[in-house]
Structures are given as structure tokens and as C-alpha cells.
Design a protein that fits this description.
homodimer, about 240 residues, alpha/beta, Rossmann fold, 9-stranded mixed β-sheet
Chain lengths: ~240, ~240
């Protein structure tokens, strides 16, 4: 794990860029003598880890006493994309905007993307937990499909917050019942890209008994600010 | 408004019983020099205001700096019931336990109960707001059907938290779209007496744009303790 740059933010947080082989990542750590619990924060696959809303969420979370890390996994964010991936992404966007069925494209494109992302997130997790400023336990926040796969595959994840679970590959819908860690499931009631009924069915399917659904009005990017604080308290209950 | 008894609790709260004509009530107020915002806390119709879970909720809320009041409205709680009401209540319970349709009984029994309760809650609100230790604004917490009617009829109510909205009389389902105050809607996913799909439809129907749904696993009395704190922050955002 090579740190390629660092800067100290106004509130004392340390924000560092790193690379781990081909994987680029960002790590935010609080000013603290003790090793901090870690939260892995993943965007949906189309956006880079430097996207302002993810960065704001990461900084706010780190300021509550967490180490927060994000990576651009293979094919995600700013990582190189094949021509076929570019095409699939464009097809998916066009079909969603046209209100056409997207399951086929989704399955053939996002399914493999999740499969390729998981080992890279686990590699990052190994490297992050080896740092002296990071302790356990580990939480996950963000992209639902990746989070399901990670929560099932990775026993070190102790709590997970998922956002927008309308479209999730079949493999992850099926393994949702194997997720047994405490869960906060955040839903935008009129999310243009995530059918509400499917998201509710996914929430119902999770195997964990300690799951909470929070739903608010509005579209995909309309989540109210107080949900960030609610999420913080969810992690506090399970990771601190 | 006649105070008939008072006691000072360990945490400095003052708990007073009062009567207002035929209406018995309880008022919890915090130790505070300034006038406190008021929360009207109503149980579902079958339970008295002295029921331990409501009392615990009221005390916790008052300790956060609120005046909290509850009454037993006509036909509710410990108030006298007609033989017909007794019978309707027994029929309703039996039908629910047997998994039979309850809409008919519900409509003919709970509908009038809500209609009779509303003027008594408004009378109590007038008397409570005349006390120097209580200021505005006013929040509502609890029984969904009563809360809908009050939120529509009573402009002094500025925020409302509703619990378990599976069975609600038709009149209140229809006026849900007229509710425009900020709303926190609390749902138990497997509430044995409140069909989930109906509760989700009611949440969808409310007219307010600032509404949040919280759902947790388990039956009617299984709401996790942290929802009380989440509810407190909801009222803090809108009443303080």
C-alpha cells in the first residue's frame, strides 16, 4: 500500500490517496490516538471515489471517529473501461431513461462488475487493517449489490448500511438471506433508477433480524442530510 | 384544568395527574425555566394512558426538554365503555386472532371512537397551552388514526410521529393526503395487527413532502429502543 499524497483538512482529518497495485484508493482518518474502527464506503459502480457527495459523506463520517476508505474497483469510477463496458453502461442508461426493461443489461453488466470488485475490496481491507491507526470492527456503507456480496463473503464486516436496492443482480438478491449482520437500508421513495417495490422485497429478504429501513421522499440524490447522522448512530451502536 | 396529584421523579421531571371535566390526563414537564414545547402522546385506543410503555416513552421524551401530555379520551383507556363498545372490542380481537376480515368491525367501532376523541384532545390542547410552563409549537406522537384527524383539524400541530398504520378508518385514510406537517412514520415489519402493505400505502398517501418511514423487524410491541431516540431527534428538528 503506497500513500501517494496526503493533506490535513481544517477539522484535523487526514485525507490520503493510496495505490495498492492497480487499485486507487482514498483513506480518511480522524485525529485520534486510538486505533479507529473502519468503514468501507462504496459508491454505485458508475461514479468515482472522488465524487463530491461521497467525499462529503466520508469526511463527515471520519469526523465522528472512523477511518473511512474508498477505492475505485476494476471497471468502476475512474478505472479504465473496455469498449464493451462503455457500451453496456450507455445501453443501461438509455434503457432506464426510456423506461424500458433493464434486467437483461443489468444482469450481464453489473453482475460481473460486482464479482470483479469484491476481491479488490478484500485486498484493500487486508491492507487497511494492517495499518496501526486502524482497528476493528469493520462497517460497510453504500452500493447495495457489492455490500451484499462482501457481507456474505467477508466475516470481518460487522454492520452494513445499504443505499438504493432497487436493481441488484440476481446472485446478490439470492444471497441476501445469507446476510446476517445488522443492517440499515436507506431508500428514496421515488428513486428514478430503483423501483420501490423491488427495494422493499430485498429489504424483506435479508436474513438478519436486526435490520432497519429508512425511507424518505424524493429521487435518487434527494436523501435528507439527517440520514447521514442517523447512519452515524447506526455505526456507533455496532462498531464502537 | 384541575391537578389532582403530582410527584417529582428522580430525574427532576414533574408528573401530574389532571382532570378536565370528564377527561383524565397526565402531564409530564421537565425541570426548566423556559416554556417547553408540547408533545401530545396518544396510545392506540385500547390501552390506558397509564400503560407502562407509554409512561416510559413520555418520561424519556419529557427528559429531552418537552412537556408531554396524554389523556384517556371518551371510550378509550380507563374511560367507561358501553356494552356495545365492549362487544365490538371483543369481536375485533377475536376476528384479528382468527385472521378473519376486520374492516367492517373496525369501521363501525374505531371510526366513531376517533371522531369522539378528537374534540377532547383539542380541549386538552387549549388547556395545556394556557399553562405558563408550556409554550409552542406542538407535536403529536402515537395512534395513527387520531393523529391524522388531529393533524388535519388542528393547525397548532407542527410535526407528527405515527405508529402502526395498518388499520385506519376509511375517513382517515382519505384525509391522509391533507396531512402536510413533517411526519415520522414508524412501522413494525411483522406487526400482527397491522398489515404491512396497508401501512406502506398509507405512508405513500400522506400529503406532506417531508415524511420519513422507519421500519424494524418484529411484532407490534417489538420496536427497538433506538427508535425513541430517533423520534426525539425528529421532534428536535421541528419543534425546537
Amino acid at each position: 500500500m503506497d500513500f501517494t499524497s496526503e493533506r490535513r483538512l481544517d477539522d484535523g482529518l487526514l485525507e490520503r490517496e493510496f495505490t495498492l497495485g492497480e487499485i486507487p484508493g482514498t483513506l480518511w482518518t480522524p485525529e485520534s490516538a486510538a486505533a479507529a474502527p473502519l468503514i468501507l464506503m462504496a459508491h454505485n459502480n458508475g461514479l468515482p471515489k472522488g465524487e463530491p457527495r461521497l467525499v462529503a459523506r466520508a469526511r463527515h463520517t471520519a469526523a465522528q471517529g472512523y477511518a473511512v476508505a474508498s477505492i475505485d474497483a476494476a471497471g468502476c469510477g475512474d478505472r479504465p473501461r473496455s469498449a464493451a463496458d462503455q457500451q453496456a453502461r450507455a445501453d443501461l442508461r438509455r434503457a432506464m431513461q426510456a423506461g424500458e426493461p433493464v434486467d437483461g443489461i443489468f444482469e450481464s453488466f453489473i453482475g460481473p462488475l460486482v464479482e470483479k470488485a469484491v476481491p479488490e475490496w478484500r485486498t484493500a481491507l487486508d491492507a487497511l487493517l494492517a495499518l496501526p491507526e486502524i482497528g476493528g470492527p469493520v462497517g460497510y456503507s453504500g452500493w447495495t449489490a457489492l455490500g451484499i456480496r462482501l457481507a456474505v463473503a467477508e466475516p470481518r464486516i460487522a454492520a452494513a448500511g445499504f443505499f438504493a436496492g432497487g436493481y441488484v443482480p440476481r446472485a446478490q438478491r439470492e444471497e441476501a438471506r445469507q446476510v446476517t449482520v445488522p443492517l440499515l437500508f436507506l431508500l428514496q421513495w421515488d428513486d428514478e433508477g430503483n423501483p420501490r417495490q423491488r427495494a422493499l422485497e430485498l429489504f424483506d429478504a435479508f436474513g438478519t433480524k436486526e435490520k432497519t429501513l429508512h425511507a424518505n421522499m424524493g429521487g435518487h440524490v434527494g436523501t435528507p442530510w439527517f440520514e447521514l447522522e442517523d447512519g452515524g448512530r447506526f455505526y456507533d451502536r455496532h462498531l464502537k
